[in-house]
User: Fold LysR family transcriptional regulator from Pseudomonas silesiensis.
Amino acid sequence: MDLLNNMRVFVRVVDCASFTAAADALDLSTAQVSRLVADLEQHVQARLLQRTTRRLSLTEAGERFLLRSRQILEEMEEATAEARGAHLKPSGRLRVHSMNGLGVLITPLIARYSELYPDVVFELTLSQRNPDPLEEGHDVVISIAHELADSQLVAQSIGQIYSVLCASPAYLQRRGVPHTPLALNEHQCLRMVDPLYSDEWVFQDEHGEQALSPAKTFQCNVAESMVKASEAGMGVSLIPFYTATRPLSDGTLLRLLPAWRPRQRTVYALYPSRRFLDAKVRTWVDFLKAELPRLFAEHEAVMDDPRHWA
Assistant:
């Protein structure tokens, strides 16, 4: 039995004060309406209506049940309208996960998005891993990968990133400037410990690739700490380009081997489903697709400025 539907029929019968009138309003037969009310009474184990040839009247149990039925049906209508509205108007809590450095970078974008959609409340989680949105309850995961494994998640490409080699002026004055990737074997190389970074450093230019496995010296899993180690003159580091922007602009680091670029990786927005996509997820992903490449371009302008090269 469809309990909610039977409750709607019961309420309509009371409002119309007639089985026949209710049947006309609901586009049902009088027999169908009578059966649905009878099924409802059987379900609640109480008579709800007193029926005579001339009129209908509510029993005491029917009066109580009518009041609660109206409340339940109104709440259901409100809940349905709210759920439908979630696909139309961005609102509610938006749970976003991102890798640490990239999450810090996009925080100003969150502020700008919030100005456009003030009814959305952000819950940003940062870590050095790519979680499963379905298992951990994230609405959107901003992931970085060379390529994605097969999954049922929707993956939207929202930008490309790469890393740059950097060292402090003081270090380069002591040890000299490397002019090829292989020359890095003669230098102190600081290593990122991160699932996205392999033990090999692979560089590409117009002629091909060169790969090397730097000796393990200082290791760290946070790019911002790697910047500090490099600024302190500990050695050469390979860090995300957007993390290098500030120290390059300040002159505390210099970019090395600008003609050689490590392999690019793609930034993805991952979310569970396209069907009935929540408006806050849709608008946030669309916003990232438009704004993140522009933000990356601002950082790349610093990377490509020869004034910041060794």
Notes: The chain has three domains: 3-86, 92-158+273-299, 163-263. The domain at 3-86 is CATH 1.10.10.10 (Arc Repressor Mutant, subunit A). The mean pLDDT is 87.
